From TrEMBL:
Pfam families: CoA_transf_3. The lineage of its organism: Bacteria, Pseudomonadati, Pseudomonadota, Alphaproteobacteria, Rhodobacterales. InterPro entries: CoA-transferase_III (IPR050509), CoA-Trfase_fam_III (IPR003673), CoA-Trfase_III_dom3_sf (IPR044855), CoA-Trfase_III_dom_1_sf (IPR023606). One of its GO terms (molecular function) is transferase activity. The keyword Transferase applies. This is CoA transferase. Keywords: Transferase.
Amino acid sequence: MRDLGPKAEDGVGVWWKTLGRNKKTLGLDWKSDEGRDILRKLVEDADVLIENFRPGVLERAGVGPDVLHDWNPDLVVLRVSGYGQDGPMRDLPAFGRAAEAMSGLAHLTGFPDGPPMHPGFPAADSTTGLMGALGIMIALFAREKGIARGQVVDIAVFEALLRLMDYPVPALTGANLSPRRNGLRQPMDFAPGGMFRTSDGVWLSVSAGSAETAQRLLRAVGGDALADDPRFATLGEMSRHMTVVFDAINDFVTQHTAKEVEAVFARHDAVASRVLSVEEIMTNEQIRHRGDIVSVDGEQTQVIGPVPHLSATPGQLRWLGRPPSADSQSILRDLGFNDKRIAALCEAGLVRLEGGRAL
């Protein structure tokens, strides 16, 4: 992960710049006897340990959850793997793309007559991180309340995306509807909307999520005649005639500029959002106002800031992702190792300093 993608001016990968922010890095041979002792010192004073090896790797190395909890009974252990710690697929290799396929996300992305598609960003990796953080917070809260001490949080990467499949599973099991790719339209045509291109070439995402907002949308693009059409009296009725609705929206949008559409929609309190490029994200007034693009002193690379925004303890970026082993020396010093001992560990190949340099 540290090596994926283009590099920033200091040689560090730009993806790692954001994923490794506020993290310190230690190069440690944790499978050696001395490395294991250092790992134990770190664990004894830790609240959380996160690992993403294949199931069984920690156990074979003699540092599985039982051992970790023997060192620190209050430790929360987050285990991230492709398919989970158990089950017939637990030992198989996996990456985020495999999870996007297995979760059903790729199956639902694209056009009806086209192939399944991956999303345009690493959805599985990012969502797994969020779900893992949520699991950690739940476990820490349970520990704080005395409900449990340390425990294992087990998340499969595919499960993080499967959890987002909120509507397809009940649609199939409760209504006998099999979700399919729907192109520019809303999933399963449950509400009017989709992607539409204006006369001046701007793509807009148009959407409605209730009968009331759908009526406002119809009135914006077709006046009373469209909004009062009995075929569109309810969302259920509307879904059976969604091609007519989609075409009406498309006809209106394609005949007007983006600013004209936005003005009409604003008057009717209907929803239309411009599809922003990354370059446009960087200059968007609302995004800038919220402070969502963040710079760190001494860094050319900008990243997305902490979300959500907390009123009393807002998140803060102290540094972006550093090179591997950048903090080995300071971490070991904090554990009580003097420079002579650190040099000996480096000489033995048990500890690595940044760039492989000697102490």
